Amino acid sequence: MKYILAVVLVIVLLGVWFRRPGPSQVAPTSDAQFLKKFESSLKAKDKDAVMALFNWQDVSVEMKSFYSLMISEFLKIDVENVIRSPIPENFPATLDGEGVHYGLNVDPVGVLDVQSNTRKINLMQLPYGKKGGVFYIACLTEELVASRMGARTITVQLVTTDGKLLPDRLIVCANPTTIPNLQFGSLFGGMKRLRSDENGRLTIPLDAPNLFLVGAEPEGFGWIQNQGLTNNAVMVIRPWGRIEGVRKNRNQPVANEHLRLLPDQYFYSKGAFGSVTRPINNVGGNETWTDNSGKFTFEHVPPLKLDVVRLEEQGSSWAWPVEVKFGETNSLELATRGRTITGHVKPGPGLDANNDLAACSGTLVSDIKDQNGLRSSVKFTVTADGSIHAEGVEPGDYILSGELLSYNVRVAVLETNSVHIPEDVSDAENAPFDIGTFTLKEVPHLNAM
Fold it and tell me: Which of 164, 225, 264, 341 is deepest in the core (most CB within 10 A)?
């Protein structure tokens, strides 16, 4: 996950409800003791023990809910180790953005880099420090910044689906250039944050064009598009949804496949909601891996039109649309007929025979679009002897292209070729298919002219 510093500062801090160490919990007063306790708690998947290592002073209810969801997700993955490093130079202990002043509630000392032994990723990087002689993992504090005076205002009522008023809730006000991100059930970004009063009413300053509202609360998710943002409008927070399903290829369960959720960009980009293309830019934190039976679940899902996206190390992707119903479990079967493809690359006339063919990479792009207007793509690797290999390629027509690099300079290309992958009616797990041999064509350079 790659975000600008403002978002990184928010999403990497982990926490849950405030707890003080009990008689059996000794607060760590040394760096080494703190690291050992944190690492052992993660490996044991002991949420209570992890909770006790965070400083919860001045942390809002919304941030506590965000941290609680985050830690629950991370504890699903096995931890290999925790690496400690000094705090980076010029590390900002405070940050202003979206009408909020953010701060860390410890004096920062370093960063904890949590690594997984089952996933080839770093799970998180957590700033930590000291407060009152005790080491803690840092949490964010928030302070709302007052809006400028003089703008016309309207009032919006915040309620649940059964009409219950929602006082003291943070709502994000945004426009199409400041669409917020959803991270573990909380919103980050937007133009400003507004808090509802004791009667669940919001006062909205109309100080920018095309405004809309988005809310992510423990009770659920809701938004009001621009044309619905009128005086005395009602914003309904609907319960979170849930997705469960099974991933199959050629009627065989697909284990250990990386899946995530994204807003259905092809639906929202059609302008169905006027000036608002989509209420959120992404659904951060909602990533999962299929188990040995191909089963997967997504919890705490916003009731929107989303895509379940398959992610692969080679950069390949495939998306399945789902319209998430609020308060319900949405069941899916993600079925494909992907085949393993093989082939060969050979140097063309004039190409230096000493070039390393393993530096060649290529892509197969579907010749047609799916129902969402999405073209599937599969990246393939090439070995030193010129062999092509890719897995999970769906039957159909593709355009093959590629390039060969030498010292980061493109020296040859695979001329664009049409490739047909036929269907195989068997349920064989791989059903390999050879797509043939392709020739690398030398790229002329200016210094050779």
Answer: 341
Within 8 A by CB and 6+ apart from 177, the residues are none
| 151 vs 189, more confident | 189
Per-residue pLDDT, averaged over 321-343, amounts to 93
Smallest CA-to-CA distance from 156 within 169, 138, 139, 141 is with: 169
Q: In 3D, which of 446, 319, 344 has the Cα closest to residue 394?
A: 319
Residues 235 and 401: their CA atoms lie apart, in Å, by 49
Q: Which of 156, 163, 288, 285 is nearest to 223 (CA)?
A: 156
Instruction: Give the burial class of 151: count Cβ atoms within 10 A of its Cβ; 0-12 exposed, 13-18 middle, 19 or more buried.
Output: exposed
Q: What is the 3-state secondary structure (H, E, C) of the chain?
A: CCCCHHHHHHHCCCCCCCCCCCCCCCCCCCHHHHHHHHHHHHHCCCHHHHHCCECCCCCCHHHHHHHHHHHHHHCCCCEEEEEEEECCCCCCCEEEECCEEEEECCEEEEEEEEEECCCCCEEEEEEEEEECCEEEECCEEEEECCCCCCCCEEEEEEEECCCCECCCCEEEEECCCCCCEEECCEEECCCEEEECCCCCEEEEECCCCCCEEEEEECCEEEEECHHHCCCCEEEEEECCEEEEEEEEECCEECCCCEEEEEECHHHHCCCCCCCCCCCCCCEECCEEECCCCCEEEEEEECCCEEEEEEECCCCCEEEEEEECCCCCEEEEEEEECCEEEEEEEEECCCCCCCCCHHHEEEEEEECCCCCCCCCCEEEEEECCCCEEEEEEECCEEEEEEEEEEECCEEEEEEEEEEEEECCCCCCCCCCCEEEEEEEEEECCCHHHC
**What is the per-residue pLDDT for 86?**
86
pLDDT at 122 > cutoff 60 = no
Q: 136 near 54, Cβ under 8 Å? A: yes
Determine the Cα–Cα distance for residues 372 and 305; give it in Å rounded to an integer: 11
pTM: 0.72
Q: In the numeric block, which tokens belong to residue 197?
A: 């009063």
